[in-house]
What does this fold into?
Amino acid sequence: MPIRVKLGEPLWRVVGQRDVVVECDTATSTIADVLLKLCDYPGFQAAYQSHADGIGPEYVLFLNDKPLPASAAALTACREGDTLRIILPIAGGV
It folds into this structure.
């Protein structure tokens, strides 16, 4: 099941593209699973984790244009056609 991911600054520069498609394995996949699959892109995990660890502001997640708290990523199921946006609040969107 494909999930579209739109990356803001500086993540898209690390990954090399603004839009990627992540294939979720099952109907029980969550947004946390999508984030884990994004770690297959070199540099993604370090760039994302550095902000989660307090080096700069934390990334903000939007699922289908609705804010999604990072704490809810493991509890939020993916659906075919979903779009996940990952942005820094100070860097602007995609």
User: Anything to note?
Assistant: The domain at 2-87 is CATH 3.10.20.30 (Ubiquitin-like (UB roll)). The first strand starts at residue 2 and ends at 7. The longest helix spans residues 44-52.
